[in-house]
């Protein structure tokens, strides 16, 4: 198959940098679209289109997208730190991007959203982002992964530091070296998670962004939500997919069947990049909301961002 012309919004970000490397390795031509796409580095099939999507008018954004077979939206606010994890800016920017993508008639629009829009099993109106049980299971699961905590520390300041302290506190409990203070710190952290997790505002914005797409037949799109434990790590080369619902592992023996504890799946950015590249080439999930998950047993910390050599 001859290479495609693929635009990546956010080529220097977490998901976008891994994706751009995968696309180039698979023989596609990539146009990086962000404020400083040149920071990714050099490759003969990589071109940079610098643009500030917040400030630029939709007409200019449409020009940035012109002539593309596929456009992948990997825009995210994380590189600006935890204070940038807001509700309105993400939705407003997503609106502009969709209007511009439709105007420029890109062949296929791939939206990378968040796991917050995935439904809890067997439900139609109950997403992860509004489930207190999901938030607790999520924080407990990522705290068990050294690689995930290291990734949060690299990207999200005090949120990463708090997660490290929470992980260390659980480790003390498991080793039997905890004190009353350790238990209190776990309780305090989990109360905050249950009442209003610091990431909830942004995760809910991502959740709501799906409403721009659901049932919309005015352009060719697909919407991928990474599975919950999405992080940097090993490229295993294989993944599984699921439509609409959060992928879950079987209920552990003797556990409450309603509990989400120890049941969340995840995927590395390198494996998600394979899933997105496959979709860009095959275009088999038009108008669908889906997730991908893979083996996360390797817990080696890995950089959140990659560059072209
Ligand atoms: N578990 C999950 O479900 C999960 C976890 C993480 C992320 N996600 C989702 O994945 C998607 C991508 O997030 P990410 O974390 O991979 O990205 P990220 O690291 O936050 O990437 C930021 C990218 O956006 C670009 N950018 C920021 N502001 C911009 C602006 N004003 N104009 C143009 N470009 C701008 C940056 O490039 P410049 O600095 O060059 O502009 C950078 O390349 C988001 O929808 C996010 O919600 C989901």
TrEMBL record:
InterPro entries according to UniProt: NAD(P)-bd_dom (IPR016040), NAD(P)-bd_dom_sf (IPR036291), Polyketide_Oxido-like (IPR051606)
Domain of life: Eukaryota
SUPFAM superfamilies the UniProt entry points to: NAD(P)-binding Rossmann-fold domains (SSF51735)
Ranges where the NAD(P)-binding domain occurs: 10-139
Stretches that traverse the bilayer: none
Family designation: Belongs to the avfA family.
Protein name according to UniProt: NAD(P)-binding domain-containing protein
């Amino acid at each position: 198959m001859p290479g495609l012309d693929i635009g990546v919004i956010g080529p220097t970000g977490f998901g976008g940098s891994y994706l751009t490397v995968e696309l180039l390795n698979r023989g596609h031509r990539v146009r990086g679209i962000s404020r400083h796409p040149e920071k990714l580095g050099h490759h003969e099939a990589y071109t940079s289109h610098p643009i500030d999507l917040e400030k630029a008018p939709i007409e200019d954004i449409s020009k940035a997208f012109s002539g593309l077979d596929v456009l992948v939206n990997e825009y995210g606010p994380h590189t600006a730190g935890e204070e940038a994890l807001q509700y309105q800016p993400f939705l407003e920017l997503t609106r502009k991007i969709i209007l511009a993508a439709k105007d420029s008639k890109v062949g296929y629009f791939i939206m990378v959203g968040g796991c917050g829009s995935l439904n809890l099993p067997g439900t139609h109106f109950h997403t992860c982002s509004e489930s207190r049980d999901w938030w607790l299971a999520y924080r407990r699961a990522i705290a068990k992964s050294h690689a995930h905590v290291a990734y949060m520390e690299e990207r999200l300041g005090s949120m990463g530091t708090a997660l490290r302290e929470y992980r260390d506190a659980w480790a003390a409990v498991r080793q039997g070296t905890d004190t009353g203070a350790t238990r209190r710190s776990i309780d305090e952290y989990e109360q905050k998670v249950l009442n209003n997790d610091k990431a909830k505002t942004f995760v809910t914005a991502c959740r709501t962004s799906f409403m721009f797409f659901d049932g919309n037949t005015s352009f060719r799109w697909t919407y991928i939500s990474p599975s919950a434990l999405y992080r940097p790590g090993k490229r295993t080369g294989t993944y599984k997919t699921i439509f609409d619902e959060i992928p879950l592992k079987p209920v552990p023996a003797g556990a409450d069947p309603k509990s989400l504890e120890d049941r969340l799946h995840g995927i590395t950015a390198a494996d998600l990049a394979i899933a997105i590249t496959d979709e860009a080439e095959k275009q088999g999930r038009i108008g669908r909301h889906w997730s991908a998950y893979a083996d996360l047993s390797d817990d080696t910390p890995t950089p959140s961002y990659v560059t072209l050599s």
